[in-house]
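dude i think i finally got it to work??
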Amino acid sequence: MTVQNPVDDLAQDRSRLGRSSTAERVADILRERVIEGFFEPGQRLSEEAISEALGVSRNTLREAFRLLGHERLLDHRLNRGVFVRILSADDVTDLYRVRKVIEGAAVRRSGQAGPEAMAVLREAVADAATAAKSGSWQEVGTANIRFHQALAALNGSPRLDEAMRQLLAELRLVFHVMHNPRSFHEPFVEHNRRLLELVEAGKVEEAGAFLDAYLDDAEQLLLRAYEPQGQPLTF
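look at this
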């Protein structure tokens, strides 16, 4: 099986960057790639390869790396370079603590959601089901993240949308600890469908309780993949 180099794949994103490209736009692209599962925790990012793939200067790329470092997605290691961050069990616990606040509030506000917002949720559920049928578990994980981003958007807050986007990028890095992606992602295809069903039916309290149990289960599954001391597994 040929393993694709995720940096090589960045070349197709070059068209998104104009001649006046900013570090923020480069950071957006790299963040999206993290969310899509292209970069793994502990992976060293080559300045030369990425700047060439995107057609941007080293200085622009370094600023993008700095921004993603502030978002806790990258680690700068002295005299070694820039690496995709490896999250700990404590990080997992904190991420889920924040998720329960943001997504729980969104579910309880879902009665105010318009048809466009609900369409985005339905599309993410459908995409996950399609990917699961073809055994594309990385794509299932991406569709799952899109579902929860759309769910958080029901809060109607651009600031919460941004916070959720950063949180879900971190969460995607956590997913890599699961050595059997199917066993982790498959149950949540149905969970998302059921949650959407409750939201569409206007059963917001039942949906909120379902979400709480759902997130508790996901958190425990991920925590069991970590060593007892709360240290991340070696990649």
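Residues 229-235 have pLDDT under 50 and may be disordered.
im so relieved honestly
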